[in-house]
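Design request, C-alpha cells follow.
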C-alpha cells in the first residue's frame, strides 16, 4: 500500500481538509467582491432609471411661476443638467465614490446632509418595529412548528398569512380612520401623523414621540411579523424529522430542551437571512408607511424627492437603501459558516 493510499488517522485532516484553512478567506473574498459589483450596478442603475421619470425638475422648482428661458437655462447650468448625459454620469460616479451625492434641487442643501438629518427618525420607527416583529415572528414560528397541526398553529399561521397579504398603506389608513379620527363611539386615541406635537421637552417630549410612534409601529409589525413566522416555522418543520432529534429524545431530554438546544439552532439559517435583509431595510425605511403617517424619515423624503423629481436626492437615497440591504445580506453570508461549518467550504 502506498503512502498516498494510507487513510488519515481519526481526528486528523486528510488532503481535502488541509485546504480548509484557506477556504473561508476565499469565501469572504468572493462575497465581498460580489457586494462591490452589486453596489456598482446600483450606482449605474440608479442614475439612468430615475431619468426616465417624466417631468422637468427645473420647471417644477419654479413652482409654476412665470420664468424666462434665460432663467431656466441658468438653473440647468447651475445643476449641470445642460451637460451631455455621459458627462453627467461621469460626474455623478466620480463624486459618489468620494461620498459626495450632490446637492438637492428643492432643498438647495447637500444630499448627504438631508439623509443624515432624516436617518435617525427612520431608525427609530423601523428599528423599533424590527425588534418587535422579529422577536414575535421567531417565538410564534417556533411554537407553531413544534405544535404543528394544532389549533394554535392554525390560528397563528392563518393570521400571519392574512396580515402579510395586506398592503401596509391600506392597513395604516384603516388604523388612522379607526384609532386617530375615530369611528362611531370609538374616539380618536392617537395622532393622525407626524413625529411630535411640538412644544414638549424632557420626559414629556419622549412620551409625545412614543404616542406618535404607536400606529406606524403597529402597522409595520402587523404586516411584517408573518414573514418571519412562516420562514421560521417552515425551517423548523424540516428539522423535526431528523434522526438527531429522535436520539436526543431517546436520551431522556425534555421536549423544550430538544427544541431550544438542538432543533432551533439548526433551523436558523433561513431565518438569519431574513433577519439581516430586514435589518438592511430598517435603513431604507418603509416609504408607504412613512408617507401615510407623515413620518419625517428617509421614506417620506424619498416620496418628496420623487414628486419633483429631485434627481440627486432620489439617486442618493436609492444608493443608500440598496447599499444597506447589500451590506446586511453580505454580513449574513459571512456569518453562515459560524452557524453551519458546511457553508463556505
Amino acid at each position: 500500500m502506498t503512502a498516498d493510499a494510507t487513510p488519515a488517522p481519526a481526528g486528523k485532516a486528510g488532503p481535502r481538509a488541509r485546504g480548509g484553512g484557506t477556504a473561508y478567506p476565499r469565501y469572504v473574498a468572493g462575497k465581498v467582491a460580489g457586494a462591490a459589483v452589486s453596489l456598482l450596478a446600483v450606482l449605474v442603475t440608479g442614475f439612468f432609471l430615475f431619468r426616465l421619470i417624466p417631468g422637468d425638475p427645473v420647471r417644477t422648482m419654479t413652482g409654476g411661476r412665470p420664468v424666462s428661458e434665460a432663467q431656466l437655462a441658468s438653473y440647468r447650468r447651475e445643476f449641470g443638467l445642460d451637460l451631455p448625459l455621459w458627462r453627467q454620469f461621469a460626474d455623478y460616479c466620480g463624486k459618489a465614490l468620494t461620498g459626495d451625492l450632490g446637492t438637492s434641487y428643492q432643498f438647495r442643501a447637500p444630499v448627504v446632509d438631508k439623509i443624515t438629518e432624516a436617518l435617525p427618525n427612520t431608525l427609530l420607527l423601523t428599528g423599533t418595529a424590527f425588534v418587535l416583529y422579529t422577536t414575535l415572528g421567531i417565538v410564534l414560528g417556533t411554537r407553531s412548528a413544534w405544535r404543528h397541526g394544532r389549533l394554535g398553529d392554525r390560528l397563528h399561521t392563518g393570521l400571519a398569512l392574512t396580515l402579510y397579504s395586506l398592503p401596509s398603506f391600506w392597513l395604516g389608513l384603516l388604523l388612522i380612520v379607526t384609532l386617530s379620527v375615530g369611528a362611531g363611539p370609538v374616539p380618536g386615541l392617537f395622532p393622525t401623523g407626524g413625529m411630535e406635537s411640538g412644544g414638549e421637552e424632557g420626559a414629556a417630549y419622549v412620551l409625545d414621540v412614543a404616542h406618535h410612534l404607536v400606529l406606524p409601529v403597529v402597522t409595520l409589525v402587523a404586516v411584517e411579523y408573518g414573514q418571519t413566522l412562516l420562514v421560521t416555522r417552515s425551517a423548523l418543520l424540516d428539522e423535526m424529522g431528523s434522526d438527531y432529534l429522535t436520539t436526543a429524545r431517546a436520551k431522556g431530554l425534555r421536549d423544550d430542551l430538544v427544541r431550544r438546544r438542538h432543533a432551533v439552532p439548526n433551523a436558523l439559517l433561513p431565518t438569519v437571512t431574513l433577519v439581516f435583509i430586514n435589518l438592511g431595510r430598517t435603513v431604507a425605511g418603509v416609504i408607504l408607511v412613512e408617507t401615510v403617517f407623515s413620518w419625517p424619515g428617509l421614506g417620506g423624503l424619498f416620496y418628496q424627492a420623487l414628486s419633483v423629481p429631485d434627481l440627486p436626492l432620489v439617486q442618493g437615497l436609492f444608493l443608500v437603501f440598496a447599499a444597506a440591504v447589500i451590506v446586511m445580506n453580505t454580513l449574513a453570508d459571512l456569518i453562515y459558516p459560524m452557524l453551519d461549518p458546511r457553508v463556505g467550504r
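Comment from the thread starter after seeing the answer: thanks! The longest helix spans residues 202-239.
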